Amino acid sequence: MMTKKLTLDDHLPYLLNRAGNLVIQLFSRDLAQWGLTVPMWRILAVLGERGPQRLVDLAVLTSIDVSTLSRTIGSMVRRGFVTRGVAPDNRREVVISLTAEGRKISTKPVPMAVRYEQSLTSGLSAKDLAASKRVLKAVFERLATQAGRSIPDKTPSRKSASRRSSKPPARK
Amino acid sequence: MMTKKLTLDDHLPYLLNRAGNLVIQLFSRDLAQWGLTVPMWRILAVLGERGPQRLVDLAVLTSIDVSTLSRTIGSMVRRGFVTRGVAPDNRREVVISLTAEGRKISTKPVPMAVRYEQSLTSGLSAKDLAASKRVLKAVFERLATQAGRSIPDKTPSRKSASRRSSKPPARK
DNA sequence: CTGCAACAGTTGCGTTTGCAAGTGAATGAT
DNA sequence: ATCATTCACTTGCAAACGCAACTGTTGCAG
Known about the structure:
The structure is a homodimer of 172-residue chains. Chain A has 172 residues and is mainly alpha-helical. Chain A has a domain at 13-108: Winged helix-like DNA-binding domain superfamily/Winged helix DNA-binding domain (Arc Repressor Mutant, subunit A, Orthogonal Bundle). Chain A is built from 7 helices and 3 strands, in the order ααβααββααα. Chain A has helices spanning 12-31, 38-50, 55-62, 66-79, 100-107, 110-121, 126-146; strands at residues 53-54, 82-87, 90-98. The longest helix of chain A is centred in the last third of the chain and has 21 residues, at 126-146. The termini of chain A are far apart. At the A-B interface, helix 1, helix 2, helix 6 and helix 7 of A face helix 1, helix 2, helix 6 and helix 7 of B. The structure holds a DNA duplex (30 and 30 nucleotides).
């Protein structure tokens, strides 16, 4: 059987995975100066940008497993960055919101993050960069749908979308 | 203080990290049918492409921590995929090589990997794709140097490069 | 030669992870 | 109204991870 040949250095998933890992490794070192971890930073950033979110939605938006997220949120509550509130119209939903403290700290790493991106991309063709962001977004979109997660609506309106579970009702 | 505004969806590190995570998550599910994990697959692929490698070099090439790598190799030896040999000219170096069994299994996921990449990128502009790979490689290169890892030579010649440790001699 | 520093790997250990099972709340069918 | 199902979240548990400490080897000053 003739295998189609696979050059690792040109294999997108491999490239993506390695670059993603490395980026996050370095980033987390820098983040340590604020006492933040990468997951925390992502949570803070999403909440700052989109406002209060339910746990499930936050999980999709940050690509963090719900169980992990639940624990991380726990430690963030203890640190006073966010609050865990119950949704008024549905008592099983937990709504995560930034506290004042959380909002304050969420802005701290921004300049660093911006500088970080610049240092990674300086000297690269702006066209290539734009193209690569397009590709990355498109790829991510496909991955997300393939993984069965629907991306929550931008509007934090409670009774909104995300009402289609791609999983067909399968039960014993 | 005027923060430069950071749009998460356009932030390269964030994009990279999330896409990388998702990709690997899905990929690992598919890999399970061969009883392989993602790290194993990476190791197999690198060995298949570049030939026997020292542990440190393998660590750099796969972006896996040496300690983790050491353990993973252990389980791969137990499974009969690779062998742990001692370098003839330097008894502290461990050389990892594919066994026949390992070589055989290393080809198995290739068609899947190829299909995987196709499904992720089909319909995307070839130009954009090429550009994005360029960017990814460049970014990765910068990350690697910044992380202090020098990429080993393509030639498996033993006494080659990788003789500069970027760490200044610091000891107690 | 001798002794110290750098290297290559391995192992210990605490933390993080991600799946699966468990809990309580809402939904829907009879 | 009742009961099974689904949903949102939490918790248990075992595997994976990464750092730091440790072992053995080589290189190099003096």
